[in-house]
Design goal:
By secondary structure, this protein is of the alpha/beta class. The protein is built from twelve helices and eight strands.
């Protein structure tokens, strides 16, 4: 990583960066990550198998179920790398607290997050699980946005992951737990983004912050952060996003003409029906907000309007 404080910090499997560290000496460069996302975040490559000394090239490993315990071992069972991979995840715990996300190689017995093949002792695949390093790191850092590279090819999952990454960066930089005022200010900017992912969480957080007198702000902030992370981990549906758009429309209702209000509502309805991408109603709403409100207004400061750099073009595809 370059250490630019103004950019999110994202760790990534080194093979996805084009580094030839796979078991066969090859790589799995993900060009969208390196060529597009890399313009907006600092990428920190890592390779658990290489870092524990397995070398390149190396004998491939697989996950094997031994009486309910998952082991990462070579196909002949002669070498077991479970303990060093788990220990490496533990070693990364402190550094990972300064990351805003991590992108891992799918299918890897060390880095895979989902559906990594799990074999029985006779050598037959019978189930699936997470890779040893990835599963351990996920337990150690439950708030860290984590995603597999293959899933980033899905536009909705890609947009959701980057929403969480940039939200994590905002939280890390703002440190809202420093005071009640800071926490309330952070929430005031986050409300409609949270609403778009989980209306019940939006309501619960309003109650959580309704009276902060005589409360441990750090503890409240930690509870708040966990609830937000859980809400944002669920991709927003069109109906939820449309609801947030309609709430934001209320801020311009008395500042635009009746025809403009009806036009905006019609476009939001088209989005909800799946006829246009999210960028269409959002652009029209942003135009009315920019026209009706000053630069520092409450509505213009909403993270929902710009959850990540517009140049990523993520909302053009959902």
């Amino acid at each position: 990583m370059t250490g630019n404080a103004d950019r999110p910090r994202v760790a990534i499997s080194a093979c996805l960066m084009g580094e030839e560290v796979r078991y066969n000496g090859g790589h799995k460069r993900h060009r969208w990550v390196t060529d597009v996302l890399g313009e907006f975040v600092d990428l920190r490559p890592l390779c658990p198998e290489f870092e524990i000394g397995m070398g390149v090239p190396r004998e491939p490993i697989r996950l094997v179920n031994h009486d309910g315990a998952v082991h990462a071992e070579t196909q002949d069972g002669e070498n077991d790398y479970t303990a060093p991979l788990a220990a490496l995840a533990d070693d990364y715990r402190t550094e990972a607290a300064r990351w805003d996300g991590i992108i891992l190689m799918q299918g890897s017995p060390s880095c895979g997050l989902f559906r990594v093949k799990l074999y029985n002792e006779r050598g037959f695949p019978t189930d699936s699980t997470a890779g040893i390093f990835a599963g351990r790191l996920r337990k150690q850092t439950p708030l860290l946005p984590m995603e597999e590279a293959g899933r980033l090819n899905d536009s909705h999952l890609r947009e959701n992951f980057l929403t969480r990454v940039f939200m994590q960066q905002r939280w890390r930089q703002a440190d809202p737990g420093q005071s009640a005022a800071a926490l309330v200010d952070f929430h005031s900017r986050s409300k409609y983004l949270i609403m778009a992912h989980s209306y019940p969480t939006y309501q619960a957080l309003g109650k959580l912050l309704s009276d902060l007198s005589n409360k441990d702000i750090r503890k409240v902030a930690s509870d708040y952060q966990h609830q937000v992370a859980e809400a944002l981990a669920r991709p927003a549906s069109r109906g939820q996003v449309a609801n947030a758009l309609q709430h934001l429309q209320g801020y311009v209702r008395d500042r635009v003409s009746s025809d403009h209000r009806q036009s905006l509502r019609a476009v939001i309805d088209k989005y909800q029906d799946g006829l246009v991408p999210m960028i269409v109603p959002l652009t029209l709403l942003q135009h009315h907000i920019d026209t009706a409100w000053e630069e520092d207004s409450y509505v213009r400061r909403q993270f929902f309007l710009t959850p990540y750099p517009e140049a990523l073009g993520l909302r053009n595809q959902i």
